[in-house]
Amino acid sequence: MTKIPASITLFLLAATMLLTGFAARDLSSYSDAELAQMYTARGMNDQALYHFGKAIAATPDSPEPYLARAFFLLKLNRKEEALADLDRIIALQPDNAQHYVTRGMVYSEAGDNKRAQNDFAEACRLGDQSGCTFMNENR
Fold it and tell me: Which among 70, 80, 133, 76 is positioned nearest to 111, based on CA atoms?
C-alpha cells in the first residue's frame, strides 16, 4: 500500500470536509473525537475509525473514546471489536454498573446468554436497577 504524504492527506481531508458541509474552521481546531463523530454522521466509516483510534491513543485511560467507538462498531455490526472496547472500559471503570449493562446487552444480542447474565448480575450487584431487571428477564 502506498503511503500518502501528510500534506496531501490534510489537503484531501480539508477538501472533503468543505465539500461535504463541515464547518470551514481550521482542521487543527477539531479534536480527533470530534472528527470521528463528524465522519460517523456522514457515513465515512474508515475515516471515523481512524480518528476514534487517534482519540483513544491520545487518552488511553479515558473510557469516553472507547465507548464512542464501541457504539460505532455496534452500528457496523462488528460486535467482537465492540466487546473488546467494552472490556477495556470495564477495566478502566470496574465500578460503573452501566458499562456492565451495555456489555451484557451486546452479549445478549450475540446469543451469549451466560456472559450477558453475568454482566447483568454484576450491574445489579453494583446497584443498577436496569441490570437487575435484565438479569431477571434473561433467566
Answer: 80
State the cell numbers at 51: 480518528
List CB contacts of 50: < 8 A, sequence separation 6 or more.
36
Strand, helix or coil for residue 13: helix
Q: pTM for the whole thing?
A: 0.77
Alpha-helical (H) ranges within 20-62 are: 32-41, 45-58
Torsions phi, psi of 109, nearest 5? Answer: -65, -30
CA 28, CA 138: separation in Å to the nearest integer? 47
The pLDDT tens digits for 63-103 are: 999 999 999 999 999 999 999 999 999 999 999 999 999 99
Q: What is the rounded CA–CA span in Å between residue 48 and residue 56?
A: 12
Instruction: Write the DSSP string, 58-81.
Output: H-TT-HHHHHHHHHHHHHTT-HHH
